[in-house]
Structures are given as C-alpha cells and as structure tokens.
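Handout, section B. The chain below has 599 residues.
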Amino acid sequence: MVYQDRIAQLREMMTENGWDAVVVSGSDPHSSEYPAPRWQQVKWLSGFTGEAGDLVVTHDHAGLWTDSRYFIQAVEQLEGTGIELHKTRVPGAESIPEWLSERAQVVALDGLCQSVGAVGEFSGSIVDVPDMLDSLWDDRPSIPVSPVTTLDVECFGGTPRPQKIEWLRKWMLLQGVDRVLLTSLDEIAWVLNVRGCDIEYNPLVISYLLVSQDSVKWFVKKDVDYLDPDTEDSFNELVADGVAVEDYDGVFYALKDFSGESSAVRIFVDPSTVNYHIYSHILENYPDEFIIRGVSPVILEKSVKTAEEIGHLRQTYIEDGVAMERFLYWLETEVASGKEVTEWEASEKLTSLRAEIPGYRGNSFENISAYGPGAALPHYSTPQVGSAVIRPYGLYLVDSGGQYLTGTTDITRTVPMGECTYIEKEDYTLVLKGMIDLSMAVFPRGTAGCQLDALARMPLWRARRNFGHGTGHGIGYYLCVHEGPQSIRYQYNPQPLLPGMVTSNEPGIYREGMHGVRHENIVLCREAGTSEFGDWLEFETLTCCHIDTSAVLPELLGPEALGWLNRYNSRVYETLAPLLPDEVALWLRQKTEIKCSGA
C-alpha cells in the first residue's frame, strides 16, 4: 500500500538522522483548522482526511491521534496502513507528548506546522525540520496564491481598517509592547479587512502581519509574473492606509531588522498560534525578557460583531433559509416521486441553490450530506462516486453553510424522509429538546459556554445517551465558520459569552451503522435586561429554516419546548413565504401548520 511505503521512507530518513520519532501535524504555519493542500501532510502519509488529526511515527509504531468526531472514519481509512488509532478526549486518553515521553529521546517535527504551545508540551530533544516531507513528496503542492480583495465596510458592515489598526496600537501601548506579530490568518484578515481564497471554504490569505507604532507590514505570497487587477487595486488601498505589502518570506528579515532598532524592543506573540520555527527565529533575535507571550487581543475583538454586521447577518440567514427551504422541498418531492437521489446529488443541488444568492462567495465548509449510517459520522465526507441513495424512509442529515459578503452561515437539519423507527424518533426528539432548551436559556452576564453546555445534553443524559463533540462554536463574519474565543462545550473554557457573539447550537447523537441526528441553529448573544440581581443575557436564533415535526415524540419534548418549536416554525413561514416560489411556500405552510402538542 502507498501509505506503508511512505511511512517506510520516513523511517529511513529517521534512521539517517538519528531521530527516535517524527510528529506530523494536521495544521499549517498559521495554525489553520483547514490547511491548504500543501500542508495536508497527515492525509499524504496516512490517507486520513479528517480535519483534526496528528500522526506519530517511531521505528516500530505509527499512530494517528484524533477525537470522537472521526473515530469511525479513522478506523475505515487507516485499515491496511499499519497505522493505529489513538483516541483523544476520552477517559484515560494519552496525549502525544505523554505517549512519547517514555519512547523517544529525539523528536523531529516540521516547526512551521507546530505551534509553540504544542511543542512546549514535549520532553526530550526537539529537532526542527521545516518542510520535512519535501524530499519524499515529489508532487507536493506549492504555497497557494489567490486574488486578494478588500472589504467595503460601508456596504457590508464592520470597522474600517485604520480604526482597527489604531485600536491595536492603543492595546499595545497599554500592554507596553512595541511590536505585535500576528500569524493566524483569520486575525490578519479581520485587522486588514482583506479576503482571499488560499484555503478552500475559508476566505483567507496566507500571510503574516507585523504591527508597530510607526509601521504595518503585511507579508504575503505574491505572483510576481501576474498580478490581477483586483489584487493590485486591493494592494494599492492597503498602501494608501499605511500598510506595506511585502514578500511572504520577508517576515524573517523584518524580525531581524526590528530587533536591531533598539536594545529594548518588546515583541508580542501568541504561543497558541505562532509556529515553532518562526518563534525560534524570534528567540535568536530578541532577549527572552523582551518577548511578551499571551492571547492575541484580536480573537476576542472580532468575535463581538458590530451592530451593522448583526443587521446584515439577520438578513443573510433569511436568504440562506430561502435556499434551504427550496432544497428541502426539492429533496422531498424528488424522493417521494420515486427518483433516485444520491447524497452527492443532494449536496450539489444545495450548493447550486446557495450560489444564486447575491454576495455568495462559496460554501463555508464541505457539505455533509449523509443518509442512514453515513450520518453516524459527525464529519462524514460525502463521496462523489458511490454515495448512498436517499430512500423514502429513515433519516437524512445535511450540515452545510455559505460564505457571503454579508456573513457566514452554518446549519444542520436532520430530515425524516418517511417512516422512521421508534429509536430514530426518540433520538430525533431528545436531540431537538436539547437544542431548544439551550435556545431558551437566560443567564447572568459573565456566564461561560461551558456553564450552559449541560442544558443541551440533559435530555440525552436522562436517557443515558451522549455525544462526543462540542455543542457550539463561534462563527466569523465572512470568515472562518469555526472561531473563538467562546465555545459551548463541557471542557472548561472561562471565556464569558458576550452580547454580539454569534455561536452555533448543535447537539447530536450518533449510532454506528444505524443513523445520526444533529439539529443546529445559529444564535446571537444579546442583552435580556437588568434586575436587582444583575445584568442578564439570552439568545436570539438567527437561523431561519423550519424543523420537521413528523418525527417528534411530543411527550418527550414537553410543553415549553413544544411551544418554542411551534412559534419558531410559524415565524419561519411568515418570514420566508413571501420570498419563496408559490409551490414551495404552499409546501412550507403545510410543514409548519403541523403543530406539535403534548395531548
């Protein structure tokens, strides 16, 4: 098998260099969740295609570390490779540093693709080998270069670039730092109001950003032979705002130059995102006491959307809802008529409907279009060839979203295609109750998502059921579909939910070989008044797409959740019906007129 051969070649390299182990990250030089093909090194070595996974190779063992979202997928994709699955985020799980501590003294890694924080957990001797796989990977893709655009904040919301730079410089003064190095691509895109398509589904530009009180330097890969007019115009806009556009690799020289200006230049970096290789370069040029480490202030600042952005998001979720309802109508009609519709065909249809929306710039992630057993994989990858036929019974799950100039969307609907078994209905209802209970939450200011997570899990817990992934993640504004710092999950995260934060609400349940259920709406945190006990917050549901009631067991939902569901479906119809074709509007009225009651 090809993957066994690649692992064998890597072991030869290890022997030649005296390495005990090699750690291969699933990320890139910017700690991206979805790396460009050049940095999909875990996939190239193992065949595993999940978004979260790290590979460890020793002379007598190869292992993949990943979490419960990918357990089933990993078992299937690693079969025959000789690579063993190591489960993370489960009781008794052993991390890579723990596992290696007694097995390897010399650990080699590509420091460009490992964060400082991650490398800091290793014991023993670390060998940094940038682009380690270049000599083995003959047709390795190059660093991507795509057109660069600047956002028109007057039309699409947000804060002008000069104001963001001024805000960052004020923060630097308060912190007593002279330089800030930003390496996370969504942070850079937010500060500069730039977008690109260097990474699929993410409107990002591969780059670094170095900010001081008197300069802003953006280090970006440029095609020297051809610069498209839009990119040239964007670069000119940046230069007009005082941003110097320099070559991507020039960041290393710039760090040297800055260190020579003064013996007391203090530089700020975020160890959770800055890569180990560039950090090592900083260590060579700055005294340790002048390297200030902490959490980037940009993460929190961009998570709180402006009033203009929130207004655009509300409208965007309505337009996205129109595409979803047209899709669900098409799907039900086609399958009921006896036509064979595959998971892939359904996915392509949904994408084509979103593409008709003005301002659409692509999907926000790969569509998860899964029928029956496929839906038991939380991050199922829909095959183009050989995907399952959607039958007129059981459950179909579709998790999808769009990138628009006016925001980023994410929605999951589990769709009863006809008759469902009792266990399918029970799972459907319990997950839905968890989603609704969290939607109705009212909580004091200062509450973190980890303190609310149990609301979404309690209906499942009472039935001795659970799901392994988080309940909610932050969502960017025409940026990454997953962002922080907030989250809703049982793992501790002290970040409070703040008014203006946009977060997913997506509990689920997965039965291997049978079915999967996930209900996902996107919610906006907003103020809910003040009492003698303090300030209060609540959620506003932004997602506008009906929830099918045909698989609901009312006695499990309870009267309060039933009331929420009926009101939500009525609002969806009233909002979307005037925007839908007549036949779809009539179908939606029938869907939302089916009121659930506990009687």
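Note. Residues 69 and 378 are 5 Å apart (CA to CA). Compare this with the example in section A.
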